[in-house]
Each structure stands twice: as C-alpha cells, then as structure tokens.
Specification:
Elements lengths: L12 E6 L3 H12 L4 E4 L8 H4 L20 H6 L9 H14 L6 E2 L4 E7 L4 E6 L4 E9 L21 E4 L15 E5 L3 H13 L2 E6 L5 E2 L8 H9 L1 H9 L20 H14 L12 H17 L4 H7 L12 E2 L3 H4 L5 E5 L5 E5 L2 E4 L3 E3 L2 E4 L8 H4 L2 E3 L6 H4 L18 E2 L13 H21 L4 E4 L1 H16 L30 H13 L5 E4 L10
Helix pairs in contact: 1-14, 8-9, 14-16
Bound molecules: NADP nicotinamide-adenine-dinucleotide phosphate.
The site of NADP nicotinamide-adenine-dinucleotide phosphate (NAP) has 28 residues, from helix 5.
C-alpha cells in the first residue's frame, strides 16, 4: 500500500546536487562558499563519478593531468602530485576524494543513494527529489551533475542473459573484488576508448582474447608518461591565470604542442614533414594550424591509417583495425601505444562483425554467422546512452507536469547547455549542447558550475524569481550547435554517440556544442550581464523564507 504524502511547502535546503564527480563536488563547494544550505546525493559509495564506475583494467584519461584537474583553488593545484601525464582511473578517483576533503563537502553527500525523481511543484515553485531510500528532499535550486557518459547502453545482442560464464561491463567494473582473467578465454565486445584500453590488459593474462569489432577507431599514441616538472611548475605559479587561459581557449585547455604551419601553405613534402613531426610529438591531430579544414583532416586521417597499419603484423588484421568509414574525429578517437601491437600476440584475435556478425550469445560463448567461439568471460565495452541517457534515467517533470522525456522526445533541447524551458531553476551541467565531451570536462565542470551559481546569486538578489529559457532561445541554440557541427569534419556524416546513433531508436541530434569554449563562456556571461534576455523570469509563489 502506498501512502500519499502531503507536499512540503517549505524547502529543506536551498540547493540539491545530484552526482559527486567533477561537477558535483565543485557544485557542493560553490553552494557552501556562497552561503547556501545544500544536500548532495551520489549513487556510488564514494566520489568520482565516471572515475568511480569505470574501474576496468587500463582505464586512464586521454586528457593530460596538467589540464584535467580543478584550478579554482591554488592549494589544490599546488598540493597534488600526479604520477602520470595521463592519470589512471584510480588516481583520478583519489584526486577527487582529496579535492572533496579539502572543500569539506563529504559531509553533505548521502552516498549509495539514487535519485529516482525530480518533480516541480507549481504551487510552491520548489523542486522535490525522491531517492531510492524513500527520502524526499525539497529545494529551490536543483543541480543534476549526473554526467554525460553515466548511463550504460544495453548490449542489444540476442541471448545476452543466457551466457553461463562471467560477464563484465567496463562501465561498472567490480570494485569490491579483483577480477581474475588469467588463463581464461575472454571475448571483448566493443572497440571504442574503453575497449582499446581494456584489450591490452586482458591480453596480458588471458589464455585467448577474441575482440569483436563492429567499427574500427583511430588510435594514436598516448601522451601517458612522466609529468614534465617544468610544466607543473608553470601551472603552480599562477593557477588562476591558467584557469582564465583555459576559458579563453577553444577546447578548455592549453594544448602542449600544435603544428606551426598551415596545411594550405605547405607543399606535399612539407605536409608529410609536419605530419611526421606531429606524430613523433604526439599531437598529430593538431599537425597544422588549420587542422579543422576538411582537406587537412583528410591528410591527417590518411596519415594515421598508414601508421596504424604499420604496427600490425597480419595484413588482414591491420586492414580491419583501420577506420576507413569515417574521418578522424567523426567518432571519439582513441589513444594507446599498445592496443594495435596487442593483435600481434598469438593469443589475440580480431573478429570483424560487419563481415561475420554476432548472431547470438549462447551459454558457452558467442555464435557468429560463421563459427561458435567458446568463452569463459565476456567483457562488454559497448558504451553509453550518452548525454540524454542519464537525464532520462531520472523521472523529471516540470511545469504542467511535463516530463523531460516528452520535452526531449525529438532529442535534447536547452539553452546554453544548462537549462530547459518548462523546468525553472533546474540546472543540468555536462548535458547536451555544451562543449562537454569535445572539450576538457574538468574546465567545463568549473565553468558551468560557476555560471549556474552566478545565476543563482543573481536570482537571489532579484527577489528570487524562477528562471527558465525562452523556447526561441533553445531553438537558436540548437541551430548554433548544428551550425558548428557542420564545420567539424565527419560530425554529421559519422554514426557516433555524439548524435545518438549508437542507441537504436534514439533521436538523432548532434549533442555537442563545437563553437569553442571561449565563445560558449562569453555567451553564458553575456546573458548574465544583460539580465537574462534569452530567458523568462516567473514570479515565485514561494516567500523569501529559506533554510540557512
Ligand atoms: P563507445 O565509444 O560508444 O564504444 C562502444 C563500442 O562498442 C563501439 O565500438 C561500438 O561499436 C561497440 N558496440 C556497441 N554495441 C555493440 C553491439 N551490440 N555489438 C557489437 N559492438 C557493439 O564507448 P566507450 O568505449 O565506453 O567510450 C565512451 C566514451 O567515454 C568515449 O568516447 C570517451 O569520450 C569516454 N572515454 C574516455 C576514455 C579516456 O579518456 N581514455 C576512456 C574510456 C571512455 P560502433 O562503434 O559500431 O557503435
């Protein structure tokens, strides 16, 4: 029997933050710094978000530790030593715990608790969040820092549940025990960033590894290795200057190297020289100053394909590991110094699914169109229902009881990647139409949370109205997102999770704003400085009373 509860008419706290990754931790800190009462909820047992869940062997960040970190606090920058220029998942998770401890926000977080619903009450102008533990918390501002890649995609393969062996997902690798793959026959499905990182680790111990590849990906050398202490010293000297520079950049970070010549001004020999130099320097994607031009991108793509094939001994395998169907950047590229060479090991084999598709997973292994492959373990590196998936995983409803699922039935709609029409005072950092995954997510977390709390401060100072964007602002922003996507080679012609193509039946909308971080930041703060002309301000039924 369910008991109907009387809706609360007063908030329990000013702000609720859902999620304790990069954005969530910083949101809790900002709330505290600005004097708001706050509650945080996290479904994991610790902070970390992505870096908590994706604990598979080999998981590490491709964005360098110089950039992929907080810069809001000088002491955090100066007191943390990274052991690698591309830190591993466990180190990043420890770093986020360190930052959360420094900010003293752990006490605000209820762990191991899923938020199931986020419901707007028109009578009070308040948000009511209900957790899996049965708690209801009412607040004036809800910040859903739930990540862009936090809702694993179902493997959509016949017979998944029939497998009698062990099965693991890279996106939720066991944390409570070690997984022993030694001497086992392991199948890995998926060759995106997670697959590319996990395969070499599995191949070190497994008796046999069969890699099931639907689409090949670009793989370039990783920048993992010792930290350059001169760069570290430079960052520590004036972290706030670094922070400002990131926001003035295109990608939310400062690339360590970039080609100094233009593709259009070089002859064939000059282009080859620039590409070779960039390959050695591990910045091949930025080999030219005008690397964004389709013709420069085509040269970079061809060059990488050649380098990839050189690393693989078997001609058929080499040919099939190379992405011929899309240009560099059409899908999220991968980085590894060892993935391709792993296929030279006698215990590793590639199955190219376009030629021999998986027909069924059976109790003893995987049956393709031509053979049955016996397996003890299946590792699913099959990706995520990206960006809108985590939003849909929560029952969110706004004005007139409109659900977010209905509002986004044709794909995500929002303004400036943070707010949605009909959902006043609800904030969605790391979501659609922001620079998100095509920028430095750590910079984005800080920028969006700053913007959100600067917005909240503005609302507090202007009589606490309710704020949501105008429909025409959302339409304009979606057009802007599309306009910049058209300029990005392969963005609209490649089947990728950027546009929802990896999930059957998902609306196809390019979900990442590629206009650059600087323009994004300026547009956000332009709105704030002009009193939010792209938004609608509604009088709040709620009196000025608050918790403190
Ligand atoms: P992903 O890039 O979406 O890759 C999923 C892989 O599984 C793809 O190869 C996909 O093939 C394949 N797949 C999915 N369903 C399948 C099916 N039913 N049958 C056969 N193959 C199937 O996911 P991910 O590798 O987890 O990476 C997601 C994102 O997380 C990355 O793009 C990146 O942004 C982030 N990430 C970053 C790092 C890092 O910084 N190093 C590491 C891991 C993840 P198709 O391509 O044909 O769909």
């Amino acid at each position: 029997m369910t008991t109907k509860q009387t809706p609360k008419t007063e908030p329990d706290c000013d702000v609720v933050v859902v999620g304790a990754g990069f954005a969530g931790i910083y949101a809790l800190h900002q709330a505290r710094q600005r004097g708001f009462s706050v509650r945080g909820f996290e479904r994991g047992t610790d902070v970390g978000g992505t870096w908590y869940w994706n604990a598979y062997p080999g998981a590490r960040c491709d964005v360098e530790s110089y950039n992929y970190a907080y810069f809001f606090d000088n002491d955090i920058v100066r007191d943390w030593d990274w052991s690698d220029a591309c830190a591993g998942h466990d180190e990043i998770q420890r770093y986020l715990r360190f930052a959360a401890e420094r900010c003293d926000v752990l006490k605000d977080i209820t762990f191991n608790t899923k938020v199931l619903s986020v419901i707007y009450d028109e009578n009070t102008g308040l948000w009511s969040l209900r957790t899996g533990a049965g708690e209801t918390v009412v607040c004036r501002y809800a910040v859903l820092a739930i990540g862009a890649l936090s809702d694993p995609k179902a493997p959509d393969i016949k017979g998944v549940d029939s497998f009698a062996g062990e099965a693991y997902f890279t996106s939720s690798w066991p944390k409570d025990r070690s997984v022993d793959l030694s001497g086992k026959r392991v199948g890995v499905i998926g060759t995106g960033s997670s697959g590319v990182q996990v395969v070499p680790e599995v191949a070190k111990v497994a008796a046999e590894v069969t890699v099931f590849q639907r689409t090949a990906n670009y793989v370039t050398p990783t920048r993992s290795g010792p930290m350059d202490q001169n760069v570290v010293a430079g960052l520590r000297e004036d972290p706030q200057a670094v922070r400002r520079a990131f926001r003035e950049s295109y990608g939310g970070h400062t690339p360590l190297a970039i080609g100094d010549e233009r593709f259009t001004e070089l002859d064939a020999a000059g282009r080859e020289r620039a590409l070779q130099k960039a390959w050695k320097g591990k910045y091949v994607e930025l080999a030219f100053r005008d690397t964004y031009l389709p013709e420069a991108n085509a040269a970079i793509s061809d060059f990488i394909r050649e380098r990839m094939q050189e690393q693989v001994d078997d001609a058929w395998t080499a040919q099939h590991l190379v992405p011929w169907d899309h240009p560099y950047g059409g899908k999220r590229p991968c980085m590894s110094n060892v993935y391709l060479q792993t296929f030279n090991q006698p215990n590793v084999r590639l199955v190219a699914l376009p030629e021999t598709p998986i027909e069924e997973i059976i109790p003893t292994g995987i049956r393709t169109s031509t053979e049955t492959i016996p397996l003890d373990v299946i590792v699913y590196a099959t990706g995520f229902d990206a960006i809108s998936g985590p939003v849909f995983a929560i029952d969110i409803s706004g004005i007139d009881g409109c659900s977010m699922k209905d509002a986004w039935v044709d794909g995500p709609m929002n303004y400036l990647g943070t707010m949605v029409y009909g959902f006043p005072n609800l904030f969605l950092p790391s979501s659609a139409m922001s620079p998100s995954v095509l920028s430095n997510m750590a910079t984005l977390a800080e920028q969006q949370i700053d913007f959100i709390f600067d917005t909240i401060d503005w609302l507090e100072q202007h009589g606490r109205p309710l704020l949501h964007p105008l429909p025409k602002s959302q339409e304009h922003w979606r057009e802007e997102t599309l306009r910049y996507a058209k300029r990005r080679p392969g963005a609209l012609t490649t089947k990728s999770w950027y546009s929802g193509a990896n999930v059957p039946g998902k609306a196809r909308v390019f979900m990442v704003y590629c206009g650059g971080f600087k323009r994004y930041n300026q547009t956000c703060y332009g709105e704030l400085e002009e009193g939010f002309p792209g938004y609608e301000l509604l009088a709040s039924p709620q009196s000025a009373g608050t918790t403190g």
